[in-house]
Amino acid sequence: MSQAIANKVVLVTGANRGIGKQIVDSFLAEGARKVYLAVRDPASAAPLEQAYGERVQTLAVDISDPASVTRAAQVARDVDIVINNAGVLVPSNPLDDNGELALDKELDVNLYGLLRVARAFAPALEANGGTLVQINSVVSIRNFSGFGTYSISKAASYSLTQALRETLQPKGVKVISVHPGPIATDMGAQAGFDNAASTTVVADSIVQALEGQEFHVFPDDMAKQFWAGYQSYAKAFVEADILKEG
Asked: Which residues form the signal peptide (predicted)?
């Protein structure tokens, strides 16, 4: 049982499948007192409700809908950990005919969705000394043209995550940026990846990060290869307070 999770109240967006569902399972196994299942379709959370009963509570949340995020934050005032996992992928190159529409959709969910969640839940996290966890991606630091618009949206969400860290950390809120490589989810299959890493690897890495002081988390084998090359820059410029040091 993790002391960073035991008896905590957690909210997970996109909790009904993939990485989100694994986070729910893992956090409850680690002793979380309650998990809010933030999903677009409440019916999709029925298997988790049947498995965990009163330890979970479903909230209808579409992070592209500001009103639904605000309503969820009004209910979940007791939240200690918010994990913004929900995201969308539209396989597209920026120069494709649908490139602009794809980017609009991905930015609305992957970037503005994070902003909506952070803004709505910041008061509760500040009051409870909580943690905001954002699921980004290795494509946030390296664009891949086959899903170039998705990479753009994740680069933007990573930049926003850095801004949230600088804004919220002085207020007692920890921020964690998670950068998986290909993971065995519906989105991973949509992107065409075979033999992708297990969702358990991502959930376990978040548990470890909550127990430590990490901002960056690169959980799976491919992600660790990215981190090996990126770490020195990240430590020197992203994580360092270079304005204060200057």
From this structure: none
pLDDT 10s digit of each residue in the chain, 246 long?
A: 789 999 999 999 999 999 999 999 999 999 999 999 999 999 999 999 999 999 999 999 999 999 999 999 999 999 999 999 999 999 999 999 999 999 999 999 999 999 999 999 999 999 999 999 999 999 999 999 888 999 999 999 999 999 999 999 999 999 999 999 988 655 545 555 567 679 999 999 999 999 999 999 999 999 999 999 999 999 999 999 877 654
- Radius of gyration over every alpha carbon of the chain, rounded to an integer in angstroms: 17
Where do runs of H (alpha helix) occur along the chain?
18-29, 46-52, 66-75, 99-106, 112-128, 148-168, 186-190, 199-211, 221-233, 242-245
pTM: 0.95
Question: Contacts for 54-58 with beta carbons within 8 Å, 24 or more apart?
Answer: 55/28, 56/24, 56/28
- The C-alpha atoms of residue 212 and residue 225 are separated, in whole angstroms, by 21
Query: How many C-beta atoms lie closer than 10 Å to residue 181's C-beta?
Result: 22
